């Protein structure tokens, strides 16, 4: 399958693994890239820029295919040293960066100077257009279904993607709620040039997370995610668990008076406990509605081959038969 995205990133299949905190490490990024997709190391999971550079080197040792680094701009009180992280990315010879969280405008000159292609992940048409205007090479359009931060507009991909297609000139991938071949075909039909997946890639053999996390995703249905932190305008789609029930309860009680301090223990410092120790109820962790479509734990190669292979069959078989 050749699309503008496979051409832009010099990859075999139009399938990207989005950055994921405590999941997007060299094991997963290299496995996705070796399977012909685009793997992504998640910069801020590495505590320092120096650690990121080491992780990039580790990934180069595991694949000779292109891979990227996700750089998430957080609403943090003390911002991480982004210029130093960008230097580590450039020094590591990585040529693709997925930005997310906020506009990458301030950092684009440094990224471009290092010859890096930027795909910005955002949840609305207006933010996609801004990304295009400031010089991003592509956009990842993240619909309401997505695991992680769906924004505050609540527009699902069946409407968001064709809206993006109406307005954008740069290529974009569909992100959020995607896990199988039918959805890749649908994304292409809706105007995208590929797909970005998060939750689906956690339930793979190579994802460096505790088996409990993979089992929880396989066991979950599409009804098992919740939205938290909406009153803080930092909405996150997470896997339902008792800690999340507690957050939802606190949010109900506090209403507009909710402050981050009211729920901080249930949302901060949770990722290492969940992803590494397998403490599934430690707090809120991102998970998409696509969990309802995830029923196995394949290798990344099995998964990508299946999605792309079946998509080609759908296009040449079922769809063509209608003509
Ligand atoms: C556990 C988890 C952690 C994530 N962490 C990040 C992150 O640190 N930065 C980021 O830009 N996106 C993050 N995401 C979002 C993904 O990159 C991707 O956009 C999203 O998962 C797509 O939706 P899907 O899960 O339905 O495929 C995370 C998603 C999950 C499930």
Concise overview:
The chain has 323 residues and is of the alpha/beta class. It has 14 helices and 10 strands.
Defining traits:
alpha/beta, TIM Barrel, 8-stranded parallel beta sheet, two-stranded antiparallel sheet, binds flavin mononucleotide
Written account of the structure:
This protein has helices spanning 4-9, 26-34, 49-62, 82-91, 108-113, 125-134, 157-167, 181-189, 199-202, 211-219, 242-254, 260-267, 270-276, 300-321; strands spanning 15-17, 39-42, 67-72, 96-100, 117-122, 138-142, 172-175, 195-197, 225-228, 236-239. The longest helix has 22 residues, at 300-321. It contains 14 helices and 10 strands. α8 links the parallel β7 and β8. The protein folds into 2 domains: 4-208, TIM Barrel (Alpha-Beta Barrel), CATH 3.20.20; 221-286, no CATH class. Bound molecules: flavin mononucleotide (FMN). Flavin mononucleotide is lined by residues 18-21, 23, 42, 70, 72, 100, 121, 142, 145-148, 175-178, 196-200, 285-288, 290.
H-E string: HEHEHEHEHEHEHEHEHHEEHHHH
Residue fraction in strands: 5-15%
CATH superfamily of the largest domain, please? Aldolase class I
CATH top-level class of the largest domain: Alpha Beta
**For the largest beta sheet, what order do the strands appear in spatially?**
1-8-7-6-5-4-3-2
> How many strands, what sense, and barrel or not for the largest sheet?
8 strands, parallel
Q: CATH architecture of the largest domain, please? A: Alpha-Beta Barrel
Rg, rounded, reads 19 Å
What do the pLDDT scores average to?
97
Distance between the termini: 21 Å
Number of strands: 10
Structural class: alpha/beta
Overall geometric form: globular
CATH fold description of the largest domain: TIM Barrel
């Amino acid at each position: 399958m050749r699309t503008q995205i496979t051409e832009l990133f010099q990859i075999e299949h139009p399938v990207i693994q989005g950055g994921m905190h405590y999941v997007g490490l060299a094991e997963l990024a290299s496995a996705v890239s070796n399977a012909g997709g685009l793997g992504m190391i998640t910069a801020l999971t590495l505590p320092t820029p120096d650690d990121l550079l080491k992780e990039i080197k580790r990934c180069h040792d595991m694949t000779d295919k292109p891979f990227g680094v996700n750089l998430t701009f957080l609403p943090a009180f003390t911002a991480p040293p982004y210029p130093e992280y960008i230097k580590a990315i450039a020094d590591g010879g990585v040529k693709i960066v997925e930005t997310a969280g906020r506009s990458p405008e301030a950092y684009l000159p440094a990224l471009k100077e290092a010859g890096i292609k930027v795909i910005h992940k955002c949840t609305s048409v207006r933010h996609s257009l801004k990304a295009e205007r400031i010089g991003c090479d592509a956009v990842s359009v993240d619909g309401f279904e997505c695991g992680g931060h769906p924004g505050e507009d609540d527009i699902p991909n069946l409407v968001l993607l064709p809206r993006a297609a109406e307005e954008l000139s740069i290529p974009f991938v569909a992100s959020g709620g995607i896990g199988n071949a039918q959805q890749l075909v649908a994304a292409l039909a809706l105007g995208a040039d590929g797909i970005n997946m998060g939750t689906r890639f956690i339930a793979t053999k190579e994802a460096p997370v505790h088996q409990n996390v993979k089992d929880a995703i396989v066991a979950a249905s599409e009804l098992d995610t919740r939205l938290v932190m909406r009153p803080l305008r930092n909405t996150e789609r997470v896997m339902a668990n008792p800690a999340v029930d507690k957050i939802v309860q606190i949010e109900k009680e506090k209403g507009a008076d909710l402050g981050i301090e009211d729920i901080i223990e249930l949302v901060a410092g949770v990722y290492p406990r969940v992803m590494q120790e397998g403490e599934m109820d430690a707090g809120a962790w991102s998970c998409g509605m696509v969990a309802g479509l995830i029923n196995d734990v394949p290798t990344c190669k099995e998964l990508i081959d299946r999605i792309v292979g079946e998509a080609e069959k759908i296009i040449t078989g079922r769809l063509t038969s209608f003509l």
